[in-house]
Amino acid sequence: MGVLHRLYRAEVRCRRIVNGIRLEPGMQVEFQSPNFNNPLMTSEGRQAIEDAFMRRYGISIMQANAMSVVWIKCEQI
């Protein structure tokens, strides 16, 4: 039996400009993660969020120092 992946949505909570990267409220991505808890709390979940923002917007959430519940809202859909 394979690993069950859950579908999540990550959304930027508020405006942030760091290291030349501009994040705007409402920017969001959907991604899959095998976690049952908040993906922001695991390395696999954080990497999935990073990859999804890179694919959709071409930006690095990690480089913008925004990989935190303060800046990103994550919910299961």
Write the layout of secondary structure elements.
Layout: E1 6-12, E2 16-18, E3 21-23, E4 28-33, H1 43-57, E5 72-76
Antiparallel strand pairs: 1-4, 1-5, 2-3
How does this structure look, described?
This protein is of the alpha+beta class and 77 residues long. Strands 4-1-5 form a three-stranded antiparallel sheet, with helices on one face. The longest helix is centred in the middle third of the chain and has 15 residues, at 43-57. The chain has one helix spanning 43-57, and strands at residues 6-12, 16-18, 21-23, 28-33, 72-76.
- Which oligomeric state applies? single chain
Mean pLDDT: 91
Strands of the biggest beta sheet: in what spatial order? Answer: 4-1-5
Share in helix: 10-25%
Q: Which features characterize this protein?
A:
77 residues, alpha+beta, three-stranded antiparallel β-sheet, 5 strands, 19% helix, globular
At a glance:
The protein is α+β, with helices and mostly antiparallel strands and 77 residues long. 19% of the residues lie in helices and 31% in strands.
